[in-house]
Design a protein that fits this description.
Shape: globular
Number of strands: 12
Number of domains: 1
Family: Belongs to the ABC transporter superfamily. Macrolide exporter (TC 3.A.1.122) family.
Protein name: ABC transporter ATP-binding protein
GO cellular component, one term: membrane protein complex
CATH topology: Rossmann fold
Largest sheet: 6 strands, mixed
GO molecular function: ATP binding; ATP hydrolysis activity; transmembrane transporter activity
InterPro entries: AAA+_ATPase (IPR003593), ABC_transporter-like_ATP-bd (IPR003439), ABC_transporter-like_CS (IPR017871), ABC_transpr_LolD-like (IPR015854), MacB-like_ATP-bd (IPR017911), P-loop_NTPase (IPR027417)
CATH class: Alpha Beta
Distance between the termini: 30 Å
CATH architecture: 3-Layer(aba) Sandwich
Number of helices: 6
């Protein structure tokens, strides 16, 4: 079987913010490649730069220097229309706070990206119901977010992220607002989608349970990649984690 191609390539990316008179270096020359179909977790303490790197990959922010490539396209060179097309068609987003539209039903939330992409109402409805079925919520399609539990809302958000058959799903702390059991269910669901659909999942997370399903883990510290570990190199135990001893 042919080796998977690099779907994301980050080359020498730095990001500097100016806050009053203070200059903050959020990223300091990061290099990273991510293969198609990979499940990658980006981990690090608050302020380490992981969310900034996540936003760079998603086209939500631009580097101060360096480049981010999606399928070898330098996204900094895209105009506003092209970047919007990329974010709508190529990338699905999952947020810690779900970001569902409260006045819309679960089905309407899922079909909204399809409508933006030009799908007919019938096409969007059929696919939306299929995706809600995929995450176990077809019977709740007419419910609004306030009528759903936190875990159910995150499942709707996952279905929405798949609306336009993206190659990449970016999950920003997807279990951050969920209890332990529900968080584990969401992690298992994301892994299943990655395995069955060949979707690349990139997660910025504090949740060590995510390591159980990750192909690789990128550890960020002080705006730099501290280390990158394969799943087989991790020693995951209750209450702690460390590299396996040789």
């Amino acid at each position: 079987m042919a080796e998977a191609h690099n779907i994301v390539r980050v080359a020498g990316v730095a990001r500097t913010f100016t806050m009053g008179t203070q200059v903050v270096q959020a990223l300091r020359g990061v290099d990273l490649t991510i293969k198609a179909g990979e499940y990658l977790s980006i981990m690090g303490p608050s302020g380490s730069g992981k969310s900034t790197l996540f936003n760079m990959i998603g086209g939500l922010d631009k580097p101060s220097s360096g480049k981010v490539f999606i399928d070898e396209v330098d996204i900094a060179q895209l105009d506003a229309y092209e970047l919007a097309w990329l974010r709508n068609r190529k990338i699905g987003y999952i947020f810690q706070t779900f970001n569902l539209i409260q006045v819309m039903t679960a089905l309407e939330n899922v079909t909204l990206p399809m409508t933006f992409a030009g799908a007919s109402q019938d096409e969007a409805t059929e696919k939306g119901l299929e995706l809600l079925g995929l995450v176990g919520l077809r019977e709740r399609h007419a419910h609004r977010p306030q009528e759903l539990s936190g875990g159910q809302q995150q499942r709707v958000a996952i279905a929405r992220s798949l609306a336009n058959t993206p190659a990449i799903i970016l999950a920003d702390e997807p279990t951050g607002n969920l209890d332990l059991t529900t968080g584990e269910e969401i992690i298992t669901l994301l892994k299943r989608l990655s395995s069955e659909r060949g979707v690349t999942v990139i997660s910025a997370t504090h949740d060590y349970k995510m390591l159980n399903v990750s192909d690789r883990v990128v550890w960020i510290r002080d705006g730099r990649i501290d280390k990158i570990e394969e799943r087989s190199e991790l020693d995951i135990t209750v209450g702690g984690i460390g590299a396996r001893e040789a």
